[in-house]
Amino acid sequence: MAKMYDAVIIGGGAAGLFCAAQLGLLGKTAVVIEKNERLGRKLRITGKGRCNVTNNCDAQTVMKNIPRNPRFMYSALSRFSPEDTMAFFEGLGVPLKTERGNRVFPVSDSAHDIADALVKCCLDCGTEFVSGEVVSLIIENGCAKGVRVNGGEYHGGAVIIAAGGRSYPKTGSDGSGYKLAKSAGHHVTAILPSLCPIVTEEHEECAELMGLSLKNSTLSLYEDDSTKPVYEELGELLFTHFGLSGPLVLSASAHLRELEKHAYRIAIDLKPALSYEQLDTRILRDFGDFPNREFANSLGKLLPSKLISVIVRRSGIPADKRVNQITKEERRRLAETLKKLTYTVSRMRTIDEAIITRGGVELSEIDPKTMESKLCKNLYLIGEVLDIDAYTGGFNLQIAWSTAYACAQAVEYTV
Ligand SMILES: Cc1cc2nc3c(=O)[nH]c(=O)nc-3n(C[C@H](O)[C@H](O)[C@H](O)COP(=O)(O)OP(=O)(O)OC[C@H]3O[C@@H](n4cnc5c(N)ncnc54)[C@H](O)[C@@H]3O)c2cc1C
Question: What is the pTM of this model?
Answer without folding.
Answer: 0.94
